[in-house]
Amino acid sequence: MEGKLPSQQEVRKEALEILEKHMDSVKLGILVSMLQIPENGNDYLEIREKLFNDQTLTKLLENVKAYELRRLG
Hints:
Structural class: mainly alpha
Strand content: under 5%
Low-confidence stretches: none
Number of strands: 0
Oligomer: single chain
Shape: elongated
């Protein structure tokens, strides 16, 4: 029995949803910017908006500093 292969768009969407649940938002932002992963035809800037939309610059900086402390910890 042959099954239909998922589209690249479906695979990307599922992968990003999994990563969003299990990965720190700073790390995910770095990964997406490195790989230039489009989601549903969207580009990095749209994904960045989705990830960080509700955060102020101060909160983003706090998250980056906390991430760096954990990484160097």
